[in-house]
Amino acid sequence: QVPLVESGGGLVQVGGSLRLSCAASGFPFSSYAMSWYRQAPGKERELVASIATWGGNINYADSVKGRFIISRNNTENMLYLQMNSLKPEDTAVYYCKGTRWSSPEYWGQGTQVTVSS
């Protein structure tokens, strides 16, 4: 059983939108802070957005502020990333991650997002 599975990536034109989903299973999702990371070719993995267990304390990378929205549904064990006004520099593999104090962290396998100009 894979703890985190991302979906929703794909090819989109500049200015378009995508909604990424991350399905969690096998661990107490509601007690984990969740985040989205991305890694572009030849670059280090970077934090895109994070959200606390209760859905508050949301933070975004400066590069995505005002364009991306992170959210979660603890009833359905789901994490989301709504991405609007996409730019070519948003092209990357997007990963979700779950963290909790003194517990192992979980990573998904990633979903590719490609923004074409």
Question: Could you explain how this protein is built, in words?
Answer:
- By secondary structure, the chain is mainly beta.
- Helices cover 0% and strands 50% of the residues.
- The strands form two sheets. Strands 2, 4, 5, 6, 9, 10 and 11 form a seven-stranded mixed sheet that branches. The chain has a four-stranded antiparallel sheet with strand order 1-3-8-7, with no helix packed on it.
- The radius of gyration is 13 Å and the shape is globular.
- The mean pLDDT is 97.
Quickly give the structural class: mainly beta
Mean pLDDT score, rounded?
97
Q: Considering DSSP H and I runs of 4 or more, what fraction of the residues is helical?
A: under 10%
Radius of gyration: 13 Å
Strand segment tally: 11
Strand content: over 45%
What can be said about the biggest beta sheet?
A: 7 strands, mixed
Order of helices and strands: EEEEEEEEEEE
Summary of the model, kept short:
This protein has 117 residues and is mainly β. 0% of the residues lie in helices and 50% in strands.
